[in-house]
Amino acid sequence: NIITTLNYLKFDKELEIILAKSKNLNNKDGKEVVSNMIKVADLTRKGFMLGDISTVMSPRTVMHWAENTSIFKDKGYAFRVTFLNKCDDVEKNTIAEYYQRCFGEDLPESLIINQK
Asked: What's the pTM?
């Protein structure tokens, strides 16, 4: 038997691939947005490994998020329709917090907003 581990892409490689697929984001501002998207994905991956959440964001999901951001012109809305809406309701606050940490913006699913 052979056992192997398949890890996620390195940050720079994932950034390169997503920018190649989302050419309209391949500029200074777009690179910053995509970098933060990958940081959110990394937080979901770490949260999954720690057992905090049950849904993980793949590089393909980040790519779809970038595409949807271009379509909807709203990265928060694109995040919700691409990933967050697929997550368990109990975990949405945690995932919205990941988004807030990386982008400095609250989502409607954020516990902070829900308490106001």
From this structure: 0.89
